[in-house]
Amino acid sequence: MNQDEKIVLNQKQKEAVEHKNGPILIVAGAGTGKTRVITERIKYLISNNLAKPKEILALTFTEKGANEMLGRVDKIMPLGYEEPWITTFHSFADRLLREEALEIGLDPQYIILTKPQSFALVKKNLFNLNLKYFLPLGNPVKFIDAILTFFSRLQDEEVYPKDFEKWRKKLNSSKEEDGRWGELSAAYQIYQQIKIKESFMDFGDLILWVIKLFKERPSILSRYKNQFKYILLDEFQDTNFAQFEIIQLLAPPKDKPNLMVVGDDSQSIYKFRGAAISNILDFMGKYKNAESVYLLKNYRTTQNILGGAYKLIKHNNPDTLESKLGISKNLTSERREKGHPPKILLAQTGEEEAEMVVEEIRKLIKSKNYSYKDFAILARANNHLDNFVWALKRYGIPYQIIGNRGLFNQPEVSQLINFLRVCQDISDSASLYGLLNSEILDYNPQNILSALNSSKYKNITLWESIKEREYFSFITKEVEMAMNSSKENSVSAVLYNFIVNTKYPEKLLENENVENTLKTNNLNLFFRYIKNYESSEKASSINSFVEFLDVMIPAGENPAQAVLEDIDTVNLLTVHGSKGLEFSVVFMVNLTSDRFPTRNRRDPIEIPEGLIKETLPIGDYHIQEERRLFYVGMTRAKDFLYLTYAKNYGGVKDKKPSVFINELEISLPGKPTEGLPLFQNTKYKKYPYPEKENAFAPTYMSYSQINTYNQCPLQYKYRYVLKMPTKPSHALTFGQSIHNTLKIFHTQERKGSLTGDLDILKIFEKAFIPLGYENSAHIKKRREQGKEMLLNYVKTRKGNFGVPKFIEEKFKLTKFEVPLLGFIDRIDYKNGEYEIIDYKTGSLKNQNFVDKNEQLTIYAMAAKDCFGITAKTLALYFIEDNVKINTARTEKDLEKEKGAIDEVITSIRTSSFEPKAGQRCRYCDFSKICPAYRNYLNY
Q1: Third-level CATH fold of 11-100+217-295
Q2: What is the four-CA torsion angle of 202, 204, 206, 208, rounded to 10 degrees?
Q3: SS3 letters across 193-206
Q4: What is the pLDDT averaged over residues 523-540?
């Protein structure tokens, strides 16, 4: 094991972990240690030789949940163990389809669409979907979002186009209603065909195609059934009908399979994503011989808070496991103190409610018992947090907004969007005004106002007005330069040049506090977003990207903003976003009758009951779902739970408290709290953001990180700590294109699905990423060169290589202080011996370079520790020259490399990141902002 701490399980947890055979339902209440049970179960199965790691499949609902589970398993398993399949449903389905797609006529190089990308695809094909009622010519895009939501719900219920059409034909309805269902049925069929033709797939498709694969190819289903001897399913209450169908195919009830499902119906809060609570409620009926274990000992929350939560959730009876199974789910706190009961605070206005919450935070901070990171403010919706942001700013209290949205709203990102909009259309005065007022330019507001007034007086555009003034010459020149260079350069390259010219990155680096680190991280996320767009588009330009945003943003696109871990700030988030988290002090805010529970906004196009396969509840499912959400919010609290609301949020009538507060059976305040020091600080306080704990400690390492740090610690800091945005690199994307091509080619070759060696050119055409090149001519020449290199490779490969045993194989070395992750391009088996091969698309190197290559040494270490393979030969294959240079590594070499990696990790944890300036700085992504390089040039 990697740690000396022995995990102590209570009796019920032990029963779950050591369950022998057959299906089992684990009902795991909030804070009862369900993740510990799952990870200990995996350890138990492996250490008792009941299953090999590859024979265990553990599925969960979110990437965060899967990563947390993997992290915990790493800590309790021996060094160099083989990883089980711990993943989300969608990642599992994607992994299967990439391997087996050709078996059902799919392109394994398909692209997964996000919801906004699906919106863009429908918009592009809108007039080809045979729509009439759902295509109002005055506003053609009106129903796109509703149609996509409807299609997604059909997928959740495992309804294929033929199933929908079959239902429609049996429908006895009016001509008008039948016409509308007919439109949707035809559109569903056509949309699926478009996605197949263009090699697109959305998240719902991943699940449906795996079901189709298993049903139409029994031999493949049988192979995976035999592989996965034990299946564990976390957050079972969050699965939808189609996802559970995959489980029932892999683990049919009649087989009495080794299936463990873990969940809590009281925490089912994702109905809007298609979650079917009936899956957990009906499990014992489907798996009639299943055992059950109830985890009711809570290790997080005091009893007084748990008691209130239980009073609330009982109102969901009889649509609960408690009623169906005849059990009690009243959680018992393992903490000695009973604690404080939930406290209700009432204010007159929303602003005063925020002041009241901030005042409570300040009191508890003064007690010295809590840090800022111990506090969470939870709201039903993101916009309900606004007043609390302003109040925290006024008092200079550090905070972070945590969630999966909001990147485009951050000032450091919105200013760049405004810049791109101005480059697309210089007459867009609104975007230009936003740009002029941004931090990146820092113009005097009086001068901006003067230019704006002049434009109104002269009846000219704001652009024409600032062009008349020398004061604004910098931005006018930058816009004009960007407009000209965008004809031959990518959006990310144009934008990168702009931010470098403004010296904005250097301004952020002058004061390396957490606020500025968040800004650089957000800039990096935005650049990654642009690069993802560019890599999926055949032709990208500023115009096309802005048009893309104009479609995406109204469709709801707003990616997650940056979040820094282990930092002492107050946490603001939605209740949905708080799932799985815990805080010492929780404020649930804006708890009025029309905000929590929120109004029941039904889908514009509701799925007909005749197509719903899940069992529907007896009671009001919307109120039940909102009540479960309220319960989740309450059970995030460890010590204190405050429930707050105001009488007025700006409307005419006073608000009533949430019905859920009444269900807690706690007396309400008679009148609002008076004497709040509202707006006593009218100016926002500039506070020094607290330093991040272990700011430079990596959570994992890779060869690239090690190599970067060894080349220049400051470059490492810019890239991996501060996450400064970088210009796209054609060398990098060309290498990715070649690597992806060879991975797909050899995977298909191994499966016997190639028609011939020339298939490699078709694969390359789809895999080629036209990003980071100087111009279109550069792209064309590099593409042709890539084809020539690959043709030379396939002609000579049989003489140079053995049979690929592993292709692009992921590894995780856990023998270091933090895991070392990576992928080995290929491991061949030839003449009874193993050979590790790494592809190189750069210039040919000599034997000495290959003998000392650190990357190959790490791969030899990984092959030995992770796969039990001792490779006699290691090689770098230089694809452009079609030359393979062999080398070898001894046990002494591996021990020496381990020591070197340990030293790098230790250095990073304590590093001041001193630069190593020199000639190589010319090729560094950060040379234009690096003071060390400037000093080197001046010297």
Answers
A1: Rossmann fold (3.40.50)
A2: -140
A3: HHHHHCCEECHHHH
A4: 81
Pick from 178, 192, 201, 36: which is nearest to 112 by CA? 201
Q: Name which of 347, 413, 351 is nearest 384 in CA terms.
A: 351
Q: State the burial class of residue 544 (Cβ atoms within 10 Å of its Cβ: 0-12, 13-18, 19+).
A: middle
- 257-303 residue pLDDT tens: 999 999 999 998 888 777 778 888 889 889 998 999 999 999 999 99
**Token pair for 92:** 């599992």
Q: In terms of C-beta density within 10 A (0-12 exposed, 13-18 middle, 19 or more buried), how is residue 628 classed?
A: buried
> 204: exposed, middle or buried (C-beta count within 10 Å: 0-12, 13-18, 19+)?
buried
859 φ/ψ angles, rounded to the nearest 5 degrees: -65, -40
CB 765 within 8 A of CB 851: no
879: left (phi over 0), alpha (psi -120 to 50) or beta: alpha
Q: State the DSSP code for 657.
A: B
Helices 203-216 and 89-100 meet at what angle, rounded to 10?
Answer: 50
Residue type for position 310: Y
What is the pLDDT confidence band of residue 65, given thresholds at 50, 70 and 90?
confident
Other CB atoms within a 10 A radius of the CB of residue 655 amount to 18
Q: What are phi and psi of 919, to 5 degrees?
A: -60, -35
Residue type, 156: D
How do the domains of the chain map onto residue ranges? 11-100+217-295, 111-198, 407-552, 704-910
CATH fold for the domain made of 704-910: Lambda Exonuclease; Chain A (3.90.320)
Q: Strand 833-840 and strand 820-830: pairing?
A: antiparallel
Counts for the chain of helices (H) and strands (E), in that order: 37, 22
Residues paired with 260 in a beta bridge: 24, 232
Distance CA 530, CA 542 (A): 10
| Lowest model confidence (mean pLDDT) among 299-308, 802-811, 924-933 | 924-933
Angle between helices 89-100 and 730-751 in degrees, nearest 10:
70
Tokens coding 240: 């939808």
Using one digit for the tens of pLDDT, what is the confidence trace for 789-816?
Answer: 999 999 888 777 888 889 999 998 888 8
Contact yes or no for 32/59 (Cβ under 8 A): no
pLDDT of residue 95: 94
Q: Is the pLDDT of residue 206 over 60?
A: yes
Sheet holding 570-574, edge to edge: 343-349, 637-648, 583-588, 375-379, 570-574, 399-401
CB–CB of 318/618 below 8 Å? yes
Phi, psi (deg, nearest 5) at residue 834: -100, 145
Could you tell me which CATH class the domain 407-552 is placed in?
A: mainly alpha
Q: Give dist(CA 315, CA 266) in Å, integer.
A: 11
Angle made by CA atoms 270, 275, 280, in degrees to the nearest 5: 115
Going by C-beta distance under 8 Å and a sequence separation of 6 or more, which residues neighbour residue 528? none
For residue 182, with 0-12 CB atoms within 10 Å meaning exposed, 13-18 middle and 19 or more buried, which class applies?
middle
DSSP string, 313-326: HGGGTTSSHHHHHT
Amino acid sitting at position 162? K
Residue 760 C-alpha from the chain's centroid: 32
Backbone angles phi, psi at 518, to 5 degrees: -60, -40
- Report the sign of the C-alpha dihedral through residues 94, 95, 96, 97, in that order: positive
Confidence of residue 1 (pLDDT cuts 50, 70, 90): very low
What length does the chain have? 939
Q: pLDDT tens for residues 710-757?
A: 999 999 998 988 888 888 888 999 999 999 999 999 988 888 888 888
Q: How far is CA 219 from the centre of its chain?
A: 33
CA–CA separation, 695 vs 752, rounded Å?
A: 49
pTM: 0.84
Asked if residue 88 lies in contact with residue 60, where contact means CB atoms within 8 angstroms, the answer is: yes
Nearest of 852, 836, 845, 851 to residue 881 by alpha carbon: 845
